[in-house]
């Protein structure tokens, strides 16, 4: 780090309230000179020579700054923004009746997004994921549970440009003609909530896209599932990255970020990761997230 970078890093420390934590990056492995990055979510031990992934992790200590002014963050500049809106979701039902209640919650989120982003002509929800941190996560990684998932501590964006099309083909089969030649965004809105009060346990950290070098820092990764192959974007470490989190997030504080754009417009992804808060005093984090496609 040169003298000028040291100066601006020092200014960053002075201006923001900081949290020291760790983020799991993708290592800059020489294997990517001959192989595309890939990962699977199922065992392959029964196949001779098969690997579940060629990813190598690069855990880095990072400084995560508190978001003070929520209005300064712009979806089309930083890759994410923050909204405040009333949402209604029964905490018990989200675990036991997810299929029954997800359509109503999609409609609620879609209405909020239409109000705040009038440039979109159509918004469709297609996924609802619930996360509830096991008390011994991340030391112990339990088997997949259909009712909820664990936080993701890997710096990533859910879909690449190609991955957005693959997700649409899977979630909306037979509708290819509708989105042909149309521009769309793959968005995700995340609301962290508790039954009584929000928790400071494992908050979501977001990387300011203006601090990312798209050519050097972003790596496309094939995500191989039992029923489909998708493509996401992973992040290589760069000391220029600046990470932020929403301290004291309430149940009606929404974080919205772009995962990809069909025409490859910047920002290319809202890169995010769950981070351990060394000063956390709250109960294990519970969150619910919705993925939507938004057509211009």
UniProtKB/TrEMBL annotation:
GO terms for molecular function: oxidoreductase activity. Belongs to the asaB hydroxylase/desaturase family. Transmembrane segments: none annotated. PANTHER family: BLL6449 PROTEIN, OXIDOREDUCTASE AN1597. This is CmcJ-like methyltransferase.
């Amino acid at each position: 780090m040169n003298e000028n970078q040291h100066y601006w890093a020092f200014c960053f420390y002075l201006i923001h309230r900081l949290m020291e934590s760790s983020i799991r990056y993708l290592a800059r492995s020489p294997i990517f000179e001959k192989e595309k990055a890939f990962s699977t979510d199922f065992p392959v031990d029964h196949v001779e020579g098969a690997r579940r992934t060629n990813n190598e992790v690069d855990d880095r200590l990072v400084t995560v700054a508190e978001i003070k002014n929520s209005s300064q963050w712009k979806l089309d500049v930083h890759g994410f923004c923050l909204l405040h809106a009333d949402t209604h979701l029964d905490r018990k039902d989200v675990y036991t009746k997810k299929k029954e209640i997800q359509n109503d919650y999609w409609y609620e989120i879609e209405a909020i997004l239409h109000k705040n982003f009038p440039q979109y002509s159509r918004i469709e929800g297609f996924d609802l994921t619930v996360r509830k941190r096991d008390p011994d996560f991340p030391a112990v990684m339990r088997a997949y549970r259909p009712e909820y998932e664990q936080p993701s501590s890997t710096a990533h964006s859910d879909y690449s440009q190609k991955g957005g099309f693959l997700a649409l083909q899977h979630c909306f089969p037979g509708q290819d003609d509708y989105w042909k030649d149309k521009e769309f965004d793959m968005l995700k809105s995340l609301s962290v909530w508790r039954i009584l009060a929000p928790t400071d346990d494992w908050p979501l950290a977001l990387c300011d896209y203006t601090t990312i070098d798209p050519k050097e820092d972003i790596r496309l990764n094939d995500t191989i599932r039992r029923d489909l192959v998708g493509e996401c974007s992973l992040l290589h470490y760069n000391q220029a990255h600046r990470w932020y989190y929403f301290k004291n997030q309430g149940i009606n504080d929404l974080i919205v970020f772009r995962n990809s754009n069909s025409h490859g417009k910047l920002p290319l992804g809202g890169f995010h990761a769950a981070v351990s808060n060394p000063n956390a005093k709250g109960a294990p984090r519970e969150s619910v997230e919705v993925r939507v496609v938004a057509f211009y």
